[in-house]
Amino acid sequence: MHASLSCTAAKYMVQRTAAVYVGGRNPAGSAIVTGERIGDQDMLTSIARLFNEWKRYSEARRELSHLSDRELADIGITRSDIDRIALGQADR
Most buried one in 3, 29, 65, 83, CB count within 10 A? Predict the structure, then answer.
């Protein structure tokens, strides 16, 4: 099965990666100094975390997308809310 990212999700993942490696914090929580070499383990940990977030996003988006408009209305959301809700699920 081929999974694709929506534009919103792709932008989110790029922003998350940038926050980790450019003036942000590494996965261990310590500040990254500009020009500091990032360890392989830190990078692998971040990639694994981003992959897991992407999987949670994709699963939530897929499940919500399969609901009818009536079922979505019953739980109080619209089809345009799906990306936002799925992105929120990815952060958990």
Answer: 83
